[in-house]
């Protein structure tokens, strides 16, 4: 995939209508509908503010939740329009539909420096189906000399009408959010500052196959932690007690170890592990060497020797890509490994990139968010990016 895509600063938007796909899929209180975290709305501000400052008439749009093509009043974007208005400090006009008469009338009347937010795109079946008629209707709102700006990184791995289809009808460029993801993650994958160290954890080997395969081709060192490490351990004949095991993936694990050796990629596996007598925050725990987990016990974190080994590998890296927690970080007693890796990343001079929903949450929860070069804003999208897949929402943008 070519990561070198045109961005908002590469195209003239002055006096034009700009359809801007944002990620306003914010968490809300189930009872009251109150937005409980407006991070995603704040993340969209730089692009929206830039467009408005340039004198563009901005037609913002997004999905919210999973209405599955039906109008679900609880999933209206109206509360987002209100919050956006507060954050931008200027009026946000809200359309009661996405491409219907209200949106059409309000888009037609929209002037430079004004912003309109369309109703939830997924109220229409055409959105997720990438229906060309729906994509064209969206594009038509921006008119003949309209521009499409894509800034919803969280959905670039989906070929929907507003994330990909619309680019057939309007010149398409990235916003600042997507540009940063492409520059940093794309840069790390295409021409990393070496050595490139990839830290892979999380619960399952099976959900990370694509990432492991792709990074084996690129990285100098691969570090394995988290639940998936026990499948590697079992595959090598270790005793893992009741630790997480995907028996079907043992052969794959062995193959990966072999492949890494053939390619000269250093593959690091845990040398010790913190085990617990139950999957619980207050379980009894002790440290044992990897592969020596007694029956009735399960590994929930990497051990102190492993922490030392992994921290040292990160210290002189040029780039670190991290996906997947080292242990069950949701339990404070088993968060040490994840925290130590976050700390090691915060201290190295390397470019540090965190991808994956739970990994990003862990880094934020442990207080290391502002110490990373980049925390990807898209969980699933960042995983597919690291798998080396072509992302439809990126492919459709104009090449530089
Ligand atoms: P990401 O969302 O960053 O891609 P994953 O979804 O793959 O990460 O994995 C995150 C989950 O893995 C966390 O909920 C964590 O508790 C779990 N996990 C990590 N280590 C273990 C372990 N040893 N046993 C069970 N679950 C684990
Ligand atoms: Mg996850």
Structure description:
There is one protein chain. This protein has 400 residues and is an alpha/beta fold. The chain has helices at 39-53, 78-88, 101-109, 125-129, 132-141, 176-190, 209-218, 229-235, 250-263, 304-315, 336-347, 357-365, 379-386, 392-395; strands spanning 17-21, 57-61, 92-94, 115-117, 147-150, 172-174, 196-200, 221-224, 239-240, 266-268, 272-276, 285-289, 292-293, 298-302, 319-323, 351-354, 374-375. Helix 1 (39-53) packs across helix 2 (78-88) and helix 10 packs parallel to helix 11. The mean pLDDT is 96. Bound molecules: adenosine-5'-diphosphate and magnesium ion (MG). Magnesium ion binds next to helix 12.
């Amino acid at each position: 995939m070519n990561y070198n895509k045109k961005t908002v600063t590469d195209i003239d938007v002055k006096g034009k209508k700009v359809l801007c796909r944002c990620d306003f899929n914010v968490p809300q209180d189930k009872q009251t509908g109150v937005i409980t975290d407006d991070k995603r709305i704040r993340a969209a501000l730089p692009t929206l503010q830039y467009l408005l400052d340039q004198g563009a008439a901005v037609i913002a749009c997004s999905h919210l939740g999973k209405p599955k093509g039906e109008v679900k009043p609880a999933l209206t974007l109206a509360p987002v329009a209100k919050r956006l208005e507060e954050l931008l400090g200027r009026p946000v006009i809200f359309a009661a539909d996405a491409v219907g008469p209200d949106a059409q009338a309000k888009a037609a009347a929209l002037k430079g420096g004004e912003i309109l937010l369309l109703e939830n795109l997924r109220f229409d079946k055409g959105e997720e189906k990438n229906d060309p008629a729906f994509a064209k209707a969206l594009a038509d709102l921006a008119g003949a000399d309209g521009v499409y700006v894509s800034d919803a990184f969280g959905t670039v791995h989906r070929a929907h009408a507003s994330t990909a289809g619309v680019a057939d009808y309007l010149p398409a460029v990235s916003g600042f959010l997507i540009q940063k993801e492409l520059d940093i993650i794309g840069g790390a994958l295409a021409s990393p500052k070496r050595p490139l160290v990839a830290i892979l954890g999380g619960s399952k080997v099976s959900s990370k196959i694509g990432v492991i395969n792709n990074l084996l081709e690129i990285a100098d060192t691969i570090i394995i932690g988290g639940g998936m490490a026990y499948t590697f351990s079992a595959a090598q004949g270790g005793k893992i007690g009741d630790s997480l095991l995907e028996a079907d993936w043992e052969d794959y694990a062995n193959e990966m170890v072999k492949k890494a050796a053939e390619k000269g990629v250093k593959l690091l596996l845990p040398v010790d592990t913190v085990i617990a007598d139950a999957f619980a925050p207050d379980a009894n725990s002790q440290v044992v060497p990897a592969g020596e987990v007694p029956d009735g016990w399960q590994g929930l974190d990497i051990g102190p020797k492993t922490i030392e080994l992994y921290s040292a590998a990160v210290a002189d890296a040029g780039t670190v890509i991290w996906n997947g927690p080292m242990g069950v970080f949701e339990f404070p007693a088993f968060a040490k490994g994840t925290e130590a890796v976050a700390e090691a990343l915060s201290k190295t001079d390397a470019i540090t990139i965190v991808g994956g929903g739970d990994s990003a949450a862990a880094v934020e929860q442990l207080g290391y968010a502002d110490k990373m070069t980049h925390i990807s804003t898209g969980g699933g999208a960042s995983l597919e990016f690291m798998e080396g897949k072509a992302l439809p929402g990126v492919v459709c943008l104009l090449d530089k």
